[in-house]
């Protein structure tokens, strides 16, 4: 007697585990590098949604319904009108293009198109166990751990052709999937992304170099270089500030710039509410270049801030 309900698990294959882990690490590193709350929130939301939409398993009921279990809500579709239920062949998935959904993070799910099947819905976590279900309403791909039991349960509910049983279970089909260009490109992109994020997180060039003349100061920053004209600076008030004690000058928000735990450059807002341009490595004592009128103050980290501030006042107050 056919059971009223048959449940099947869905586990991740190796590629899914690698891609998921790499993307999660990339998002974590990006959040740490950005040092902004909204970036962290977005990263958490991306991971949570990707995991929530991932198939957790499948249920076949004796009433003729397949249910794809997901944390965010199950997907159900009837077996009525099934024309084929079989293992997937290499031809079935050749030329696959993801139209919407996940291409490896916690599975392969969403709307895809393949050269042979056309548009089809994927609820896949292990590409070595894919079953294709072709019905009058559409085509779906699933990946139960127990493929033979899954097909047997479908056959117990509705009369259907199971197709060639050796289609995707042979080593050739598995090898085609494991070494498909799309798989390695996806993994490669994820690895490169993590490497770039790691470099951004660890970037520590020290105080920026500069060029000082009698009428301008050019700060040679890799991301946000700037030239400050002496005529636009209130030279008499050039001084050294310590952001650990001069709390009004402590940066609170990065508005447009680069920042990690070792280096900051670009536009920031400080505790007093002013918008400044800041170039800071690991130092806390910075040279303040205040504007004469409505300009933007500049905070610069240099090796000897007191000596540099005095040199600026000397050169710009009396260029001769």
Helix percentage range = 25-40%
Low-confidence stretches: 164-180
* Order of SSEs: EHHEEEEHEEEEEHHHEEEEEEEEEH
- Alpha-beta content class: alpha+beta
The 3D shape can be described as rod-shaped
Q: How confident is the prediction overall: mean pLDDT?
A: 83
Could you give the order of strands across the largest sheet?
5-9-10-8-7-6
Number of H- or I-type helical stretches: 7
* Number of DSSP E strands: 19
From the N-terminal CA to the C-terminal CA, the straight-line distance is 103 Å
Strand content: 25-35%
Radius of gyration: 30 Å
Please outline the major beta sheet: 6 strands, mixed
What does this entry look like structurally?
The protein is of the alpha+beta class and 320 residues long. The chain contains 7 helices and 19 strands. The strands form 4 sheets. The chain has a 6-stranded mixed β-sheet with strand order 5-9-10-8-7-6. β2 (57-61) and β3 form a beta hairpin. The chain is rod-shaped, with a radius of gyration of 30 Å. Mean pLDDT is 83; it is low at 164-180.
In short:
The chain is 30% helix and 32% strand.
Please supply descriptive tags for the structure shown above:
19 strands, 7 helices, 320 residues, 32% strand, 6-stranded mixed β-sheet, 30% helix, alpha+beta, single chain
Set out the fold topology.
Blueprint: E1 5-9, H1 14-34, H2 37-53, E2 57-61, E3 65-69, E4 75-78, E5 82-87, H3 90-93, E6 97-104, E7 107-114, E8 118-124, E9 131-135, E10 139-142, H4 147-157, H5 171-178, H6 181-202, E11 209-212, E12 216-220, E13 226-229, E14 239-242, E15 251-259, E16 264-270, E17 275-280, E18 285-289, E19 298-300, H7 305-317
Parallel strand pairs: 8-10, 17-19
Antiparallel strand pairs: 1-2, 2-3, 3-4, 5-9, 6-7, 7-8, 9-10, 11-12, 12-13, 14-18, 15-16, 16-17, 18-19
Helix pairs in contact: 1-2, 1-6
């Amino acid at each position: 007697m056919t059971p009223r309900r048959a449940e099947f698990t869905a586990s991740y294959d190796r590629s899914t585990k690698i891609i998921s882990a790499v993307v999660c690490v990339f998002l974590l590193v990006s959040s740490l590098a950005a040092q902004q709350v909204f970036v962290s929130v977005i990263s958490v939301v991306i991971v949570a949604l990707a995991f929530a939409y991932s198939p957790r398993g499948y249920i076949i009921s004796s009433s003729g319904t397949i249910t794809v279990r997901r944390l965010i809500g199950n997907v159900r579709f009837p077996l009525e009108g099934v024309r084929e239920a079989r293992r997937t062949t290499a031809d079935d998935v050749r030329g696959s293009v993801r139209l919407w959904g996940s291409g490896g993070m916690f599975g392969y799910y969403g709307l895809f198109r393949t050269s042979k099947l056309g548009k089809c819905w994927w609820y896949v976590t292990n590409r070595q166990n894919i079953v294709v279900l072709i019905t009058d309403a559409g085509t779906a791909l699933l990946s139960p751990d127990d493929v033979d039991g899954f097909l047997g349960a479908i056959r117990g509910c509705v009369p259907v052709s199971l197709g060639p049983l050796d289609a995707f279970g042979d080593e050739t089909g598995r090898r085609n999937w494991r070494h498909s260009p799309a798989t390695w490109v996806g993994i490669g992109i994820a690895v490169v992304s993590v490497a770039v994020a790691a470099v951004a997180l660890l970037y520590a060039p020290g105080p920026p170099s500069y060029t000082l003349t009698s009428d301008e100061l050019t700060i040679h920053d890799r991301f946000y270089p700037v030239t400050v004209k002496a005529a636009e600076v209130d030279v008499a008030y050039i001084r050294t500030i310590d952001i650990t004690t001069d709390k009004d000058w402590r940066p609170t928000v990065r508005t447009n710039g680069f920042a990690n735990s070792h280096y900051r450059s670009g536009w920031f807002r400080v505790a007093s509410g002013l918008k400044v341009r800041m170039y800071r490595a690991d130092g806390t004592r910075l040279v303040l270049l205040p504007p004469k009128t409505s300009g933007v103050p500049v905070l610069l980290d240099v090796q000897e801030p007191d000596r540099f501030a005095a040199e600026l006042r000397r050169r710009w107050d009396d260029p001769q």
